[in-house]
């Protein structure tokens, strides 16, 4: 599903965020990216989502080298990657329904199909019945679940998340991570950047450790905690 082959990324200001990074993530895996702030986690996710392109090396997603992908194909590529942000990035003046429907509306999906998919996505995250609520009327945990529903409403085969529990308490963090694992259970590849080492250990999935823009460790998944399954 994902291959990084000797990938480096240097931003216009001269900062080298990644240096010679290589790893493979298989279809249906759930993988955590960990490391200190500035280690390169967010840059890896941006390269996966084609929000950035590598300076050197190759990023291959589902068999497509993103460096050679033509501009007219970028929108279609991005529709196959669900993205969850730490700060939700919801439209405050639009109800939950409209926020979740946004990717489908942009893709000119028929209204009947939009309605079916939005309600199914909200049901998956436990928010069916909140369609007309505004984001600011929801709790922080509910807002994050709206963000997840929006990310999966197009049924992407790949879901990435950048510090999705950074603003949540431990109980809500577990709840959100369990949602990600439900998607993995149905075959979605899930990549999560997180600095929450306790939570990462709780779910005991594969961990790729970044430090100063380089891979410093790549550990297989041990058995998860019982708490992670509840």
Write up what this structure looks like.
With 230 residues, this protein is of the alpha/beta class. The chain folds into 2 domains: 2-80 and 157-229, Rossmann fold (3-Layer(aba) Sandwich); 90-155, no CATH class. 32% of the residues lie in helices and 25% in strands. The protein has 7 helices and 10 strands. The strands form 2 sheets. It has a 6-stranded mixed sheet, sandwiched between helices. α6 links the parallel β7 (158-162) and β8. α3 (96-106) packs parallel to α5 and α4 packs across α5 (140-152). It is globular, with a radius of gyration of 17 Å.
Ordered list of secondary-structure elements with their pairings:
Blueprint: E1 2-10, E2 16-25, E3 30-34, H1 41-48, E4 56-61, E5 64-65, H2 74-78, E6 81-84, H3 96-106, H4 111-124, H5 140-152, E7 158-162, H6 170-185, E8 189-193, H7 197-203, E9 206-211, E10 214-219
Parallel strand pairs: 3-8, 3-9, 6-7, 7-8
Antiparallel strand pairs: 1-2, 1-4, 4-5, 9-10
Q: Which labels suit this protein?
A:
230 residues, Rossmann fold, four-stranded antiparallel β-sheet, 7 helices, 32% helix, 25% strand
The fraction of residues in strands falls at 25-35%
Q: What is the element string, with H for helices and E for strands?
A: EEEHEEHEHHHEHEHEE
Largest sheet, described in full? 6 strands, mixed
CATH top level of the largest domain? Answer: Alpha Beta
Distance between the termini: 28 Å
Structure summary, number of beta strands: 10
Are there runs of 5+ residues with pLDDT below 50, and where?
Answer: none
Q: What fold name stands as the CATH topology of the largest domain?
A: Rossmann fold
Percent range for helical residues? Answer: 25-40%
Structural class: alpha/beta
The CATH superfamily of the largest domain is identified as: P-loop containing nucleotide triphosphate hydrolases
Q: Report strand order across the widest sheet.
A: 6-7-8-3-9-10
CATH architecture of the largest domain: 3-Layer(aba) Sandwich
| Rg calc | 17 Å
Q: How would the global form be characterised?
A: globular
Number of helices: 7
> What is the total domain count?
2
